[in-house]
Amino acid sequence: MIRISSQAGFTLAETLVALFILALVSASGASLLVGATGAGKQIRQAEAEARQLDIAQALIRQDIAAMSERAVLPDVRGGRAGNLFGESRRGSKTFLQFVRDGWLNPGEVEARSDLQLVRYRLENNVLIREAVTRPDATNGTPMSERALLSDVRDVELSFYRGGERSETWVGDAGQPLHFLPELIEMTIVFTDGPSLTIAALTGGRT
Fold first, then answer.
1. Which of 26, 93, 135, 155 has its CA 20 to 30 A from that of 143?
2. How many CB atoms lie within 10 A of CB 127?
3. Cβ neighbours of residue 32 under 8 Å, at least 6 residues apart?
4. 13 touches 21 (CB < 8 A)
5. Are 185 and 163 in contact (CB under 8 A)?
6. The three-state (H, E, C) secondary structure of the chain, written as one string
């Protein structure tokens, strides 16, 4: 004769309790997963912004450090040629322009010099670096643009030479390198309030 124990299996109440506990654990796990995913996105965004800042600072410092005395026409018609044009940002016009050297051309494969015309401007809250393959650019001269930083409200420039500071600089054509400012500061003001100041010595000075 087979006897059936009254203890075999679970009662309905026990099953409901177990399901309730499982639901609580699942909800907690899902909440932790969502939180971890959100935190991961924030970390990746912060890392991307930090990389963008590092790249922008490096490019700006490299450009200023490689500044040449080579004269070019300003980014406006009728202006006198000079080796550096700079002023605090006004609208979306170019606020900093000069020629830099050290543009690598391994094996001189390309028919060009190592000089490059560099311009900076602020457009739609984006700091843009414009590089032209020849100092004396024409309409057909190849050019590249790179968005360095976004959410930028303003850019201010300071030029230092002999202990004196100026907010504008127009270099005369043909002047040697020592007529350039000794140091240039670029202060970038972001739309959310903070600012970043980048300072660099000109023309490879140390």
1. 155
2. 22
3. none
4. no
5. no
6. CCCCCCCCCCCHHHHHHHHHHHHHHHHHHHHHHHHHHHHHHHHHHHHHHHHHHHHHHHHHHHHHHCECCCCECCCCCCCCCECEEEECCCCCCEEEEEEECCCCCHHHCCCCCCCEEEEEEEECCEEEEEEECCCCCCCCCCEEEEEEECCEEEEEEEEEECCEEECEEECCCCCCHHHCCCEEEEEEEECCCCEEEEEEECCCCC
| Confidence at residue 69, expressed as pLDDT on a 0 to 100 scale | 83
Q: Which tokens is 22 given?
A: 């499982």
Positive or negative, the CA dihedral 42, 193, 152, 96 is negative
Longest dimension (CA), the chain: 116
Token pair in block for residue 184: 């240039």
Question: Residue 149 pLDDT > 80, yes or no?
Answer: yes
